[in-house]
Task: inverse folding
């Protein structure tokens, strides 16, 4: 049954091909249904394959399928092949499952758009690339998927390419990601240098024998790969592309820029845990960068007014949590949060899309309010997702985020972990606040819509609300796959734990070893209190005493502006990197090439030809000149040959 | 004669020139239609004929095959000698392939002196193929010079406004290069003759001889200039943007697609083949120029207002990658380098064809004259998109395989700094290509002239389609291409390895990966070569 894994990426690829060939002659609805069918079939194949995997003995659940040799040069060889194990199985289920729901939603959301055929082409291509990424049996196949999803992200962010802002955002996303890819590429090259292969199974089997813990080389490799992860998963210092990526259609934001692609960096690090476990210093970097990203993005989300931007910064922040989890060695928790986040963040974006659609492309929450009566299903599902991300038990986000914070608290980083934990818990507070600021401003209070928009505002059709409800269900109960405390019933740990268990690592090991029920319950209590406090604060400031917010804004205007302007990071990059580089390139062109090299050559030519008009001397009869030169050459040969 | 008893290689070489001659004699120059289809027929026939080499070529066998040899000028050791190995085979196929497409692409672009134009393209093709097949230095040199005239004429007669300047600049640059090259060849000839008493220009024979080290150094750097100008390697590149901007589309396609590869081919065949020790010593200097070229070419490409200049500078960057790969002197690096020659021919050839499509419609190539074309030209947008990402090196398309193997080679050779600097080209490539794509395709249509611009017609799609097929083929399944060149590349690496054993040895796995000396014990054949640079030449 595990053979079905080959079908998982095959169906979306088939969808792409059929779209390319037939879509022009198909109706809009048929194109959408075909795309959904491709992803749906992929999901069913994934279920079959994973079921087959679950029938295997725990601890031996890994099936490698080789399709053909892709590159072979000297003794270096890379196959196109898939690795199905518990880790990739979770990923393919999440990817195909969420992608299917979002495809269905897109039929409604993209209805009437002239580019709908192109839209579904790119979406299917994205699913294919994403599946390649998570199923690849080597770093290079992972990289193919990695670049493939980057391409689709570029194409879909710039989907409405007539808008300059969309075209620019797509380009920015691709280029910034390429900076990360630069690191990833160097990491891979060093892996080949040290291991002679890029195959996961071979590299991970060799690694503990080739390196001692903390060796410079393994630290360098893991840090370079992490640079790749900061690009794809929008971490400091490369997170700047993700907020701009919201220029794409909202289903794209939900699928690519929330649920799946942006988690690729987290997946890659978890996949490479054997290497990271050998590089404790790199893990500290991962945890710290993740935690700082979570915090920084949280502060920015507090004050944004565009519904999608709030969610975008929230995504950056939640990805930071996942990185934090990976950094403290709690890989299972990272993947668990990746999964629950896929549910509730996809839901939040789709809900936002439902609102934006109903309001005819209005995205500013200052112009919304009171929508809960007009859009009850959208409101209810959005509320479930918000409670989940805020960390209210027993919803999915609580379970996974709590595990991350607990593991961070217990990670043996000599005190540093407590600082990370504190930042993490503070970010949890901010998360609850900004999410409910969003909920209250959008759905509660008085309606601030302009009358024209209000007249047309409506609940979305079932093709939109059914996927919302399905995701709401998952956001509510998905967390039970990873119940804390009762480890025996913790499906997540039992399923993917063995993947990470081969080499001992500090966070998770320690957490389970010193499993103090009291400590765990107290930390859990703090999380709940903090989340509730955040929600209550939002309630007071947004709904009951709006004056307070105004007061804060004025008294702390510099801080407010810092957050509102995203810490001026984009402006800094512009001033420090882009503009100087542009100027330097211009200098190279006009001064170095133009005046330097060509100037010198013209000077020589002028000197040789006497003053002025050196070109005219050559215009006539240069072939004769040339023939003469050649004749001289031949003569030289002949004369010298006589000796 | 050869194992075929049939001069197949010569036939492939001379068919275009002979065809051109017959066309000039028997087809009326006023009948453009007849001229175009005759020229296309000749080029297609030549392509098919070159494919005929494949069934007779033994992929797993090393050394030159289908040899044709006869005395030419006996007194001076000059012979007519042609042969093919995996590297030249691929490059010849690229030449005949692009040659036919270049002619097809000129059907509507060229309306003046059509017959002369087609004759130039065909004669040029004979010169290029001859360069790849020639195994005698004088013969090589003759073909090398034969190429120069039709190319200069293509630029100077059918070019743009500054065509005379560009043609002369191209001509002088290359002429200076070839003069140095000639000196280098003479050095080899006399050094070899003086030491052994055998005065010969036979390349196969000379490659087996170990020249004294100081002679190698002189020969190496003399040839280096000739090849570096042709590549062009930084800082010898300033003829290229001018030549490209002024050349007609087909001229640019051939110039970028094939002519630039003469330089890199020269590096593989002559620089590495004749002067192994000097080449090994020169590695740091050449890698420095290559890496500067990668970064410098990319940065300058970024700020170009003219699409064609942008693509021209991108060639400087890509050819830097090729040279980097060749001079890592590893199996991966050289295979990547040779593959990247093919890839660059396909992607950049396609880019020039696409720029030509725009130029025929708008008679401008300035970026600010376009914008928003994606809405009007969906097919063009799709094809340009694929070619753009091929040039950027997206995995799954051809460019990635070459770039990755080159960087892999650099790391295997422990050229970490050069490898890492070159890898910044991965970022910069995306910067300038996507910049170009956005400026041309995205945004609103701001120019009235673009409102009624038409999408590609069937002939234009027909020209691009075969290139797209190859872009995907090499990207998804490059093994046939890698296998064809493998024995030749192994030979080159083995010959150099002899001079510096253990060069690759310190990486725990590099030695295994790089050892080209697979089970067949080819190293035994090379034992007679000397490690001592000062020892006398032996034959």
Result:
């Amino acid at each position: 049954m595990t053979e079905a894994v080959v079908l998982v990426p095959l169906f979306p690829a088939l969808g792409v091909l059929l779209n390319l060939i037939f879509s022009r002659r198909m109706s809009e609805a048929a194109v959408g249904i075909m795309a959904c069918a491709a992803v749906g079939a992929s999901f069913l194949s994934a279920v079959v394959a994973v079921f087959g995997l679950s029938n295997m003995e725990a601890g031996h659940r890994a099936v490698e399928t080789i399709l053909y040799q892709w590159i072979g040069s000297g003794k270096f060889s890379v196959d196109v092949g898939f690795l199905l194990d518990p880790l990739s199985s979770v990923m393919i289920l999440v990817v195909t499952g969420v992608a299917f729901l979002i495809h269905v939603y897109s039929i409604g959301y993209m209805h009437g758009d002239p580019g709908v055929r192109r839209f579904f082409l790119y979406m299917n291509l994205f699913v294919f690339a994403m599946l390649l990424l998570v199923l690849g049996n080597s770093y290079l196949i992972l990289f193919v998927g990695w670049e493939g999803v980057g391409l689709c992200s570029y194409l879909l962010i710039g989907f409405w390419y007539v808008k300059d802002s969309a075209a620019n955002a797509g380009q920015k996303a691709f280029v910034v990601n390429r900076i990360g890819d630069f690191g990833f590429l160097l990491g891979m090259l060093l892996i080949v240098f040290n291991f002679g292969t890029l195959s996961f199974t071979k590299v991970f089997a060799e690694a503990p024998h080739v390196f001692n813990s903390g060796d410079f080389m393994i630290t360098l490799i893991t840090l370079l790969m992490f640079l790749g992860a900061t690009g794809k998963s929008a971490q400091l210092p490369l997170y700047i592309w993700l907020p701009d990526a919201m220029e794409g259609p909202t289903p794209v934001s939900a699928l690519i820029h929330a649920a799946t692609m942006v988690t690729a960096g987290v997946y890659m690090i978890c996949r490479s845990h054997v290497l990271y476990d050998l590089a404790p210093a790199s893990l500290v970097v991962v945890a710290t960068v993740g935690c700082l990203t979570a915090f920084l993005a949280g502060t920015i989300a507090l004050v944004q007014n565009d519904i999608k931007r709030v969610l975008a910064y929230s995504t950056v922040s939640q990805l930071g949590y996942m990185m934090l989890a990976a950094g403290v060695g709690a890989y299972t928790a990272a993947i668990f949060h990746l999964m629950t986040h896929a549910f509730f963040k996809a839901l939040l974006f789709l809900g936002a899309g439902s609102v934006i659609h109903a309001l005819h492309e209005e995205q500013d929450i200052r112009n919304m309010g009171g929508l809960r009566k007009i859009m009850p299903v959208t409101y209810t599902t959005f509320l479930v997702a918000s409670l989940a991300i805020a960390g209210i038990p027993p919803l999915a986000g609580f379970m996974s985020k709590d595990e991350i914070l607990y593991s961070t608290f217990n990670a043996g980083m000599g005190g540093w972990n407590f600082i990370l934990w504190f930042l993490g818990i503070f970010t949890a507070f901010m998360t609850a606040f900004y999410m409910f600021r969003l909920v209250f401003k959008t759905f509660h209070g008085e309606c601030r819509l302009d009358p024209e928009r209000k007249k047309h505002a409506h609940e979305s059709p079932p093709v939109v609300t059914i996927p919302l409800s399905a995701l709401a269900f998952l956001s509510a109960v998905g967390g039970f796959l990873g119940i804390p405390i009762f480890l025996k019933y913790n499906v997540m740990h039992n399923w993917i734990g063995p993947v990470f268990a081969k080499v001992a690592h500090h966070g998770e090991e320690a957490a389970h070893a010193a499993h103090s029920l009291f400590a765990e319950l107290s930390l859990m209590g703090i999380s709940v209190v903090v989340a509730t406090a955040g929600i209550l604060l939002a309630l007071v400031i947004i709904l009951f005493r709006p004056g307070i917010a105004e007061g804060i804004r004025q008294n702390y205007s510099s801080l407010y502006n810092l957050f509102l302007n995203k810490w001026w990071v984009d402006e800094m990059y512009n001033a420090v990197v882009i503009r100087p580089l542009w100027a330097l390139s211009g200098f190279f062109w006009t001064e170095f090439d133009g005046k330097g090299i060509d100037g010198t050559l013209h000077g020589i030519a002028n000197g040789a030809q006497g003053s002025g008009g050196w070109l005219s001397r050559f215009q006539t009869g240069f072939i004769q000149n040339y023939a003469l030169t050649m004749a001289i050459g031949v003569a030289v040969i002949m004369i010298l040959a006589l000796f | 004669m050869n194992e075929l008893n049939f001069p197949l290689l010569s036939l492939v070489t001379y068919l275009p020139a002979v065809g051109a001659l017959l066309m000039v004699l028997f087809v009326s120059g006023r009948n453009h239609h007849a001229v175009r289809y005759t020229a296309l027929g000749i080029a297609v026939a030549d392509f098919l004929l070159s494919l005929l080499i494949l069934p007779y070529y033994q992929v797993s066998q090393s050394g030159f095959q289908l040899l044709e040899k006869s005395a030419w000028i006996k007194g001076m050791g000059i012979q007519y000698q042609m042969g093919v190995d995996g590297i030249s085979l691929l490059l010849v196929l690229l030449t005949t392939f692009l040659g036919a497409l270049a002619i097809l692409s000129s059907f509507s672009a060229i309306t003046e002196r059509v017959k002369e134009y087609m004759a130039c393209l065909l004669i040029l093709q004979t010169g290029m193929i001859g360069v790849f097949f020639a195994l005698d230095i004088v013969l090589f040199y003759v073909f090398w010079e034969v190429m120069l005239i039709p190319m200069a004429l293509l630029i100077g007669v059918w070019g743009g406004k500054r065509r005379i300047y560009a043609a002369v600049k191209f001509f002088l640059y290359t002429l200076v290069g070839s003069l140095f090259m000639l000196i280098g060849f003479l050095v080899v000839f006399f050094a070899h003759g003086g030491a052994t008493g055998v005065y010969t220009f036979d390349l196969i024979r000379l490659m087996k001889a170990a020249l004294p080290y100081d002679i190698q150094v002189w020969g190496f750097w003399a040839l280096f200039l000739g090849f570096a100008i042709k590549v062009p390697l930084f800082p010898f590149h300033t003829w290229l943007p001018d030549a490209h901007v002024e050349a007609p589309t087909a001229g640019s396609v051939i110039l970028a697609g094939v002519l630039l590869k003469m330089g890199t081919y020269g590096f593989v065949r002559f620089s590495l083949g004749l002067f192994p020790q000097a080449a090994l010593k020169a590695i740091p200097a050449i890698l420095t120029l290559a890496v500067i070229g990668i970064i410098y070419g990319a940065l300058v490409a970024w700020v170009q207002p003219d699409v064609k200049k942008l693509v021209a500078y991108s060639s400087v960057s890509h050819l830097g990658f090729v040279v980097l790969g060749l001079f890592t002197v590893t199996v991966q690096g050289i295979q990547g380098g040779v593959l990247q020659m093919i890839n660059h021919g396909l992607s950049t050839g396609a880019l020039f064809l696409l720029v030509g499509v725009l130029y025929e419609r708008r008679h401008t190539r300035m970026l600010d004259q376009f914008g928003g074309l994606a809405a009007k030209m969906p097919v063009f947008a799709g094809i340009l998109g694929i070619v753009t990402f091929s040039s950027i090196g997206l995995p799954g398309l051809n460019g990635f395989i070459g770039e990755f193997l080159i960087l892999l080679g650099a790391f295997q050779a422990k050229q970490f700094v050069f490898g890492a600097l070159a890898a910044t080209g991965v970022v910069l490539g995306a910067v300038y290509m996507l910049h170009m794509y956005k400026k041309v395709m995205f945004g609103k249509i701001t120019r009235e002239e673009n409102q009624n611009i038409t999408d590609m017609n069937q002939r234009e799609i027909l020209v691009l389609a075969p290139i797209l097929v190859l872009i995907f083929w090499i990207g998804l399944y490059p093994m046939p291409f890698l296998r064809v060149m493998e024995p030749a590349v192994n030979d080159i690496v083995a010959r150099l390895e002899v001079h510096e054993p253990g060069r690759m040895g310190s990486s725990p796995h590099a030695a295994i990966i790089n050892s080209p000396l697979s089970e067949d014990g080819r190293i035994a054949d090379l034992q007679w070569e000397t490690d001592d640079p000062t020892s006398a030449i032996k034959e």
Remarks:
- Strands of chain B lie at 65-73, 78-84.
- Chain B touches chain A through 78 residues (CB under 8 Å).
- Chain B is about 70% helix and 5% strand.
- Residues 504-539 of chain B have pLDDT under 50 and may be disordered.
